[in-house]
Write a structure and sequence with these properties.
Elements lengths: L8 H12 L10 H10 L4 E4 L3 E3 L1 H8 L6 E6 L10 E5 L2 E6 L3 E2 L5 E2 L3 E9 L4 H17 L10 H10 L5 E4 L6 E3 L3 H12 L3 H8 L7 H6 L4 H10 L4 H19 L5 H28 L4 H28 L5 H31 L9 H14 L4 H9 L3 H14 L2 H30 L9 H5 L5 H7 L7 H21 L7 H9 L17 H19 L4 H23 L13 H14 L3 H25 L19 E4 L1 H6 L2
Parallel strand pairs: 1-11, 3-9
Antiparallel strand pairs: 1-8, 2-10, 3-8, 4-5, 4-8, 6-7
Helix pairs in contact: 1-3, 2-4, 4-5, 9-11, 10-11, 10-12, 11-16, 12-13, 12-17, 12-23, 13-17, 13-22, 13-23, 14-17, 16-17, 20-21, 20-22, 21-24, 22-23, 22-24, 23-25, 24-25
Length: 663
């Protein structure tokens, strides 16, 4: 087949791969050859079938999806019929693929929702599986020269083998760009005309906007932020540079909020906060538009989002105090505690849901939780409906939080803003926790058993040996963590209403430390994904209680919670990348060590000193860990972008035609 100008399609594809940034382009001559290539490299491999007509940007996008996971192009509008692998997608993952009917890993048959687009990036971790699958298919071809699968392109057969293994393959869609698989010259001509009719740059700019975002972001930011994104690209700004600008804007807003009763300052702060949020969206859009991704930039963006929000809480607290409106610091402390624990549940529920999508269980087929999951899926599929937007808004995402803060502080005052954040945040927390608990009970997926549970529990030098020593005791992890939280909450209540003696923190600390007993036990319960969040709640409540019992200045208590939050967000950011513990991690003492230090300092009458030193120590360790981690060998802030031959997948293959010519 040929494309525009009479060039052979295979030649055109090879040129496109070079234009997309591939350092080395290889036309594979057999599946055995492919297996040899997979075994000879440690870099991602981009595989492209010889029947693909697409924008070059489609190939570049699949090659540069952030992270190291494998990625498959999925088509939903495939007009040219032919033997194809059909796929099932769930939460952005290809969870099953088949040449006829599809059977998931749990043995259940499902209806396909897309067709494989014959573009597959195989991540480094999956290269051994690719080599084994290629050799297996090669042996199958030799054993049976004829058969129903012989007409199926080899890349489709390889995908079905890979999805039958416990591998994570992300699904990528062309969306506004064009990708087609063709089996005839008329189909190739039609596909080429469709490609030519679409402005690739304009489509890429729109694709830089998240496909599904929150209500405020969709209609108040993304309607015009792409123009800022294009301007930033033309000015040569990096996504990290835009992130830094957004931090400056948020810090300026927090400083203006601290003026309290000055209406001009409050309105100006609200405007700065809105513009800072726009820049917060632009940094991600710029990364997607320029295909300029880096692990450092992703980490910084995650940390900056939380730091900016909590800095704004501090500014609102100062403003409320200066205006004589009430105890703003108490509300800011409650807000940072609530929001951090909520984020912990969000992170772990997301990890649970991803694991359930990849490894569904037969037991998840019935029950109230399963019905809630089905209802949620239906609502999410009804994009743009009232129920869709209600579902996305009620959980109080970041866009709505920043919009609420900006609006209430501009119209009213900082105290009203903090109260509004707490009320909506509390309702959202209750709603999401209730529904997710029911849904996860039906999933029955032990997500904590797939990671280093001790690391993500944030156990320290006391909890680790104690957990190993008591590993045989039948102490379940979640009840122990909940008990710790209730004990800390009881101490906090006593401090608010009764002013207990300093020594009372010691027996409460002992009860909190009981959560260390199941540290080494398997966290395989259906609800054990809540353990990290429960431990965060227990520790943060204990910090607040110590602040009250020990007469610690509220800004100092807030500073310690801020430092703890940054430490724990660092852990969750590493969870998403399955990365190792941060450098200097043991110096953080673990949640158990910090509880012991706080309890001892409070009992000795030195709570203020201990809280201040601990906050400073945690901030210092956080900064040093970031510097060491991102400047050490193999962790430098590198980039992944189209056209950078040092980091784009090193190999590319064009499938069936060259393979058949070798026979």
């Amino acid at each position: 087949m040929a494309v525009a100008g009479g060039r052979r399609l295979t030649t055109h594809l090879l040129d496109q791969l070079r234009a997309a940034g591939a350092r080395e382009v290889v036309s594979v001559t057999s599946l055995v050859h492919l297996a040899e290539l997979a075994r000879s490299t440690r870099e991602p491999v981009l595989l492209v079938g010889d029947d693909v007509v697409a924008h070059t940007a489609v190939l570049r996008h699949v090659a540069t999806v952030p992270g190291t996971a494998s990625v498959a192009l999925v088509l939903t509008d495939e007009p040219d019929a032919g033997p194809r692998a059909t796929v099932i997608e769930d939460r952005g993952q290809v969870v099953a693929a088949g040449l006829e009917g599809i059977t998931r890993l749990d043995g259940a048959a499902s209806d396909p929702i897309g067709v494989f687009g014959a573009v597959l990036r195989v991540g480094p971790a999956d290269l051994p599986a690719l080599a084994e699958s290629a050799l297996a298919e090669a042996g199958r071809d030799e054993a049976a020269e004829a058969g129903p699968d012989r007409a199926v392109p080899p890349l489709d057969r390889l995908l079905t083998r890979l999805t039958a293994r416990p591998t994570m393959i992300l699904a990528h869609r062309a969306r506004l760009l064009v990708a087609r698989r063709v089996t005839s010259q008329p189909a190739a001509d039609a596909a080429a005309r469709t490609v030519a009719a679409v402005d690739s740059d304009r489509a890429e700019l729109r694709l830089a906007v998240k496909e599904r975002d929150d209500l405020f972001t969709t209609y108040a930011v993304s309607t015009w932020s792409p123009y800022v994104t294009r301007l930033a690209a033309r000015l040569g700004l990096s996504p990290t540079g835009v992130t830094v600008l957004s931090i400056v804007f948020a810090a300026g807003a927090a400083a203006l909020f601290a003026f309290g009763g000055n209406r001009i300052a409050l309105v100006a702060g609200a405007l700065l906060l809105y513009l800072g949020f726009v820049l917060d969206c632009v940094d991600g859009q710029l990364a997607r538009y320029t295909r300029n991704f880096s692990a450092w930039g992703g980490w910084l963006d995650t940390m900056a989002d939380r730091a900016k929000e909590y800095l704004v809480y501090a500014g609102l607290a100062v403003g409320a105090e200066r205006a004589g409106l009430g105890n703003g610091w108490a509300l800011a402390i409650a807000a940072i505690l609530l929001q951090t624990v909520r984020h912990m549940t969000d992170t772990w529920y997301g990890a649970l849901h991803d694991e359930a999508a990849r490894r569904p269980k037969p037991a998840a087929a019935g029950g109230l939780g399963a019905r809630l999951s089905q209802a949620s899926t239906r609502v999410q599929a009804d994009t743009g409906s009232v129920s869709y937007w209600l579902k996305r808004t009620v959980v109080f995402p970041i866009g709505e939080r920043w919009a609420l803060i900006a609006l209430t502080v501009a119209l009213f005052n900082p105290l009203v803003s903090l109260i509004a954040v707490l009320v909506w945040g509390g309702l959202a927390a209750a709603y999401t926790l209730a529904l997710r608990t029911l849904r996860s009970a039906s999933m029955r997926v032990p997500v904590l058993s797939t990671v280093d549970a001790v690391l993500h529990r944030d156990d320290g030098l006391l909890a680790r040996p104690l957990g190993r020593f008591t590993a045989r005791l039948p102490v379940p992890a979640l009840p122990a963590a909940v008990l710790a939280g209730l004990a800390a909450l009881g101490l906090l209540g006593a401090a608010v209403f009764g002013g207990p003696a300093r020594w009372t923190v010691l027996p409460v600390a002992l009860v909190v430390l009981l959560a260390a007993l199941p540290s080494a036990r398997p966290h395989a319960g259906a609800l054990d994904w809540l353990v990290p969040a429960a431990l965060r709640a227990a520790e943060y409540l204990f910090v607040v209680a110590v602040g009250l019992v020990g007469d610690v200045p509220p800004p100092l208590t807030f500073a310690l919670l801020f430092a703890l939050a940054m430490h724990h967000y660092d852990l969750t950011a590493r969870l998403e990348k399955r990365a190792a513990a941060p450098p200097l991690h043991t110096l953080n003492l673990g949640w158990d060590g910090r509880v012991v230090v706080l309890a001892a300092g409070t009992a000795l009458g030195a709570a203020t000193t201990v809280v201040g030193v601990l906050a400073g120590l945690l901030f210092l360790i956080f900064v040093l860990s970031a510097v060491i981690g991102w400047t050490s060998t193999g962790n430098r802030p590198g980039r992944t972008r189209g056209g950078d031959i040092d980091v784009i997948p090193a190999l590319a293959t064009v499938g069936r035609a060259t393979e058949e010519r070798s026979r």
